[in-house]
Structure formats: structure tokens, C-alpha cells
Amino acid sequence: VSPTLxxxxxxxxxxxxxxxxxxxxxxxxxxxxxLSFYIYIRNLQLKKFWTKIxxxxxxxxxxxxxxxxxxxxITTPDSFQDxxxxxxxxxxxxxxxxxxxxxxxxxxxxxxxxxxxxxxxLLPLGFWLISAVASVMVVYYGFNRLDPVLLxxxxxxxxxxLRNIYL
Length: 167
What we know:
There is one protein chain. With 167 residues, this protein is mostly helical. The protein has helices at 4-24, 27-46, 55-61, 64-75, 77-85, 92-118, 125-144, 148-166. The longest helix has 27 residues, at 92-118. The protein is globular, with a radius of gyration of 16 Å.
């Protein structure tokens, strides 16, 4: 079972990680966190909590990732273009990190599908298995990018994933 507070913290963390991804100009983080942001909102809807948030806040929260992108495009257009301009799609580190981040997001699509079938927000075993594999991939990416935030976040996450697999 997934507690409501889990999804609230995930949503807040996703927003902060989006800001970090923009500052680092990291396409792996940006893609992953944008997708995750909306999956977290959907889980709050499944928990019947989203409608308890005042409408004005929901209107502000929902477009936040795109507002961040828009602010960056307006204030530093060259900086935003640099994120995607110099990507080497054949770089194995980028590919592994990208696939790992994609798996971290697909786990939520899997969780979302599973929860929709059950008509409640749940975290099945497959979610934790995908999380553990993807975490190792993102740690590898973070290590090669010398990114202490990714390394810390995913290393700590890996411990939690293994614990939940064990449980």
C-alpha cells in the first residue's frame, strides 16, 4: 500500500529535482522528472487526495514543469538549447543513464497500470524490482557525471528498494 504522504513528498521532490536538472542542464533528469511529476499527481488522484488540495493550488501545481521550462527559455534561451544541442546519443554512459531514468519512470507507469486495475494506489513487487535495476543504472550515470546528488539519491533509494523486495 502506498501512503498519501509518499506521493506528496515524491511530487515535491520531483519539482526540486526538475530545478536541479535545469541547473545541471541534464536531459536525463529533465525527461524523467517531468514524466514522474504527472504520475505522482495521478496517484494523489487515486488516493482521493488531489481534490482535497484547493483548486487554486492544483492550477498552480499542474503546469509547474512547463512553467520552469518556459522561465528558462525566456531568461536564458541559449542555456536551454545547450541541454539538447551537444548530446552524444552514442555515449554509453548517457544511454545507460537515460535507460535507467526511463525505467525509473516506467516503474510508475507499471505501478499506475497496476493501481488502475485495483482501483487504488498500490506498490507491487515488480515496482521495487524495476526500481533496483534502474537505480544501479542511474548510479553508474551519476558516478560518471560526478553528480553527488544523483549518487546520493539513487544509492539511498537502492537500499530502500532492496528492503521492500525483501519484505
